[in-house]
Amino acid sequence: MTSADEHDRWRDDLSAYVLGALEANECADFERHLETCTICAEDQRWMQPVVTLLSESVPRIAAPRELRERVMGEVRSDVENRAAAVAGSSRKSSGLRGLLMRPASGLVAVVLLAAGIGGYLIADGTDERSGGSGEPPVTISQGNVSATLERQGDAGTLQVAGLSELQPREVYQAWVNHDGKIEESSLFATRKDGTATAAIPRELNGADSVLVTIEPRGGSLRPTSGALIEVPLPD
Amino acid sequence: MSKVERLADEDLMPLIADRDPRAFEVFYDRHGGAAYSLAYRVVGSRLGAEDVTQEAFLSIWRSGARFDRTRGSVRAWTLGIVRNRAIDALRRESGKAPKLSFDDAAILESKPSDKLTDDEALRLTEAEEVRGAMRELPTEQSKVIHLAFFGGFSHSEIAEMLSMPLGTVKGRMRLGLEKIRLQLAEGVAP
């Protein structure tokens, strides 16, 4: 703690400090004083909020809509680039699986996986079964949404009904839960009747459940909204 | 209203740190208007304010929203970043004095409406109270506060501009802030 005499020397620097009006070297000196001066620390507790309110005191003007679009365009571009980079490194290590999991081609991946790996042809809401593992499907309903997961070995096909129509910037995303670790899976859209079919290419062996959430278009690396439905998998 | 829209600012920030564009969109919609208004107040042009606001928000996004909730509100943190960027922009324009009177004709004061959230309505009320408190200040006090906060001048620069001792500048800053605080306290007293 500093003495009152010592504090007096710095007293008026506090107002300049909170207003951002001290030079860089003065600022560092004052911060050292502030660490030990309880009087200044006490004054700062009321002075800082007053200065914060100055930011709010300016007359409000309408920000241009184009500004929002520019900022969000950059953000989405970052997300896509990042997802592409992740998919690229995954592709190098896991070949076809990496290619199929690229979020940008998520819907294509659903079709390819369903047709090629899962043994299903998904077109216009018509599913034709051509093979399976023989494991009984798991069906569950939560609210208006119901889902059936059919296993094909390590992969699976998720049939969902009762889904709402999404906003233009949203997409449904399936996830696989491995002991609390949520791994991204397919992106999918609904048919007009609120049903959808999604391939689950991730390793279902040992998984605890499959979830569905609503995500921003392009998908997410982690769920950003609560699960609409969670289908538990038998041990 | 979606689930993300219902989250408090402090709960949005971890999602933004995880690069969730939807959370960032909600964050922008909450604070973009205040940020743009502050930037405009400092740099004095619409184009400059757009650049500052865009830079500030993208720096928050790209730095992973390094917000520390122990050091204040998300709103104050965000506006602090915007102000710093705006002051930097002013300083980059070397030799150009900050504009201290603004084109009020270009200002579209927000009118309370049904679309305003409770938080936003409260902020607009607070903003009007702070403006009122500033108007009540003696000119010499409001001038040094404006030059420092919105003009980005250091106390020694202000002393030189106004031809007054450094101690006087700092003293007036302190007196002015104390008066604003008292005005606001009286305003909320029953």
Largest sheet of chain B: none
The proportion of residues forming helix of chain B, as a percent range, comes to: over 70%
Mean pLDDT of chain B: 82
Strand order of the largest sheet of chain A: 3-4-5-8
Q: Tell me the number of strands of chain B.
A: 0
What's the arrangement of secondary structure elements?
The complex is a heterodimer of chains A (235) and B (190).
Chain A (H helix, E strand, L loop, with lengths): L3 H7 L2 H6 L5 H13 L1 H19 L8 H30 L1 H5 L5 H12 L2 E4 L2 E4 L8 E5 L2 E8 L2 E7 L8 E9 L2 E8 L7 E5 L8 E8 L12 E4 L3
Antiparallel strand pairs in A: 1-2, 3-4, 4-5, 5-8, 6-7, 6-9, 9-10
Chain B lengths: L2 H4 L2 H9 L3 H23 L2 H17 L11 H19 L25 H19 L2 H11 L5 H8 L3 H23 L2
Helix pairs in contact in B: 2-3, 3-4, 3-5, 4-5, 6-9, 7-9, 8-9
Summarize the structure in words.
With 235 residues, chain A is an alpha+beta fold. Chain A folds into 2 domains: 53 residues, Orthogonal Bundle (Arc Repressor Mutant, subunit A); 127 residues, Immunoglobulin-like. Chain A is 39% helix and 26% strand. Chain A has a 4-stranded antiparallel β-sheet. In chain A, strands 7-6-9-10 form a 4-stranded antiparallel β-sheet. In chain A, strand 4 and strand 5 form a beta hairpin. The radius of gyration of chain A is 28 Å and the shape is elongated. In chain A, 36% of the residues are buried. About 18% of the residues of chain A have low confidence. With 190 residues, chain B is mostly helical. Chain B is built from 9 helices and no strands. In chain B, helix 3 packs antiparallel against helix 4 and helix 7 crosses helix 9. The radius of gyration of chain B is 18 Å and the shape is globular.
